[in-house]
Amino acid sequence: MSNFIELVKRGGNEAVKINKPIGVDFHITDKGSDWLWSAFCIFLFFFIIMVLLMFRKPINERLFYYTALAPTGFMMIAYFTMASNLGWTPVKAKYDHVQTSTQAEHPGMRQVFYARYVGWFLAFPWPIIQASIFGKTPLWHIAFNVCFTEFYVVCFLIAALVHSTYKWGYYSFGIAAGIVTSISIMTTTRNLVKNKGNSELMNVFKIFYGIIMFLWLVYPVAFGISEGGNVLQPDSEHIFYGILDVLFLCVMPCLFVVFASYIGMDHIGYKFEAPELQPMAHSVPKALPPKLEKKTKKKGKKSKKSKK
Q: Where is the segment annotated Disordered (predicted)?
């Protein structure tokens, strides 16, 4: 019985013990890692559901599913990394709002997870792409929106890694990039949706991007009180970011599949023809020319004589 109890104890989450946060004063604990594993499971669950549903559709009707699989898959990997207490670097905090009894200097060193920003870089553009799909936005304008979204993520990453007050400069650049992207969606894409004359499509677009824009506006607040202002402990930071990520990069992309499928690909303006799978024709050997046929017969006779 005692061996079983020891086995159960060893079966818990030991990520923080195995991958120790050496060199930082403010870092995640077992509880923070547990929450990150929970978020990872949510991303994994939605990813599997989307994969299973995708393969039930014909190949020409899978576009919507691709846009949901990408962000959930990328963030699944990012949260696996963070839950394992990997993918981070120590950064000296600018402000002394959070303190620990063991820190050697004030402000202390804070654990900043660059793995989250890598996940954001790969996943953040997809809700923007989904909103653009509603209006069948031209590819070059979608590329413009994606570039400014990536600009937003890169600026926030640099801001998180910078110790001095110059971090707020990158923070401001990132917010400006997000505003430009939102203006682009709410003008160009909205007008394209409006020109389709489908009131149902317009209502779905407004609801979808309204929620997206609201969630996106909360991210700078989360940054300001975590990596930026050093107000929240890393555990609380991950809870805040985790809720946002699950909603913004998991639930909303999957809801897009539901909304877009309800409207219909044809009504949105996308028509893809499924490739026809033709059976392979059996190869019939062609008849040899008369001269070659005579030569082969002569060779066959010679080979028979040589055998005799």
A: 282-308
